[in-house]
Amino acid sequence: MDAYQQQMKLLSHKLLLIILETLDVTQEEIDWAISTQDSQQVLQLNSYPCCPNPSLALGLAPHTDSLLLTLLNQCGISGLEIFVEGSGWSQVQPVEDAFVVNVGDLLHIFSNAKFPLLSHRASVNQSNHRISIAYFHGPPVESRVAPSSKFQKPCFKSLLVKEYLILKAKHFSRALSLIQT
Prior knowledge:
Blueprint: H1 2-23, H2 27-33, E1 40-48, E2 60-63, E3 69-73, E4 80-84, E5 88-91, E6 100-103, H3 105-110, E7 120-122, E8 130-138, E9 144-145, E10 159-160, H4 161-171, H5 175-178
Antiparallel strand pairs: 1-8, 2-7, 3-6, 3-8, 4-5, 4-7, 9-10
């Protein structure tokens, strides 16, 4: 597990560098996003057993991820669904040897909403026990999150990462609206 987590950390840093390059941010802001000192790195193993009546159960309720970036290994079995405006819930079919990359709330804030969030959920099925592995990467909880300094009109207030995480835990899907300017 340690080796897997280390590889996910390296991959998330590479992806964040590419993403942040598109925003033309400062070196200080890049260092904040890919900080190895006190950064948040969480590896979560999810198990979704077979369900005799999947229409009566949900594996994981609709949500957005809280940190900067999530790398998800679907382990070859579908169950991830995203909400598409105007269409509803849509299955994300697993791609062999590929990860699903989710923009988290903190990257949404930092990009001043340039990178949109997708609400997603996990469903269960009747025939397959599904496993997924999620790696979450975020900056230190004692650091501040705000739209990049390059944005003249920030959409969100600046606050400590831990303050945002407390808001998210308390107000869930309404957390972002509470810090809009």
